[in-house]
Amino acid sequence: AQSVTQLDSQVPVFEEAPVELRCNYSSSVSVYLFWYVQYPNQGLQLLLKYLSGSTLVESINGFEAEFNKSQTSFHLRKPSVHISDTAEYFCAVKLVAGSARQLTFGSGTQLTVLP
Amino acid sequence: NAGVMQNPRHLVRRRGQEARLRCSPMKGHSHVYWYRQLPEEGLKFMVYLQKENIIDESGMPKERFSAEFPKEGPSILRIQQVVRGDSAAYFCASSPSSDQPQHFGDGTRLSIL
What we know:
Order of helices and strands of chain A: EEEEEEEEEEEE
Distance between the termini of chain A: 41 Å
Distance between the termini of chain B: 36 Å
Number of helices of chain A: 0
Structural class of chain B: mainly beta
Shape of chain A: globular
Radius of gyration of chain B: 13 Å
Number of strands of chain A: 12
Order of helices and strands of chain B: EEEEEEEEEEE
Shape of chain B: globular
Number of strands of chain B: 11
Radius of gyration of chain A: 14 Å
Structural class of chain A: mainly beta
Helix content of chain B: under 10%
Largest sheet of chain A: 6 strands, mixed
Number of helices of chain B: 0
Oligomer: heterodimer
């Protein structure tokens, strides 16, 4: 079975500072990787995904994540955060093949951007 | 395009009552997934359905929980004889196929008194 570990449950950071949210996964087979963002009292929104190809993927609002197969990681980064980036961020994996089509999520990282 | 619609947004039930949670997938999406989010935790998969079929219910509790996705109408997650431990946010997601990214609704927050 696959699993996802997000080591940091809370990450406070000042506005305009860089941030990295860590994600490591465990799986015996190939997986797709995702980052979702959840604002208070809302559902999850897809931030970015790695399916194949370039290991560096970017979102439209300045976030990027790099798939590192040897370290089984998919860390999320942003060079300069805004107050509006305050939210909970979830890393997730999904099997590339097989009958299980669900997402397996990490426990989430609360990013709080301070003025 | 309307997103995934879940209702109600908030549901309060007393112990022993039934809870019915509804999910209308995005237009053109025939794959529906239900997840549960307990406080301070990530989402946990419950069940995966296509129209009129349960494909994978490996995450569903063996008793009191059931799900359906009829030919017409929304998908329903039904919890019978609710207990305090059922208090959680229940999220529905949909996709046009099993290989496409899932889009989430805003969830139903279930509170058990």
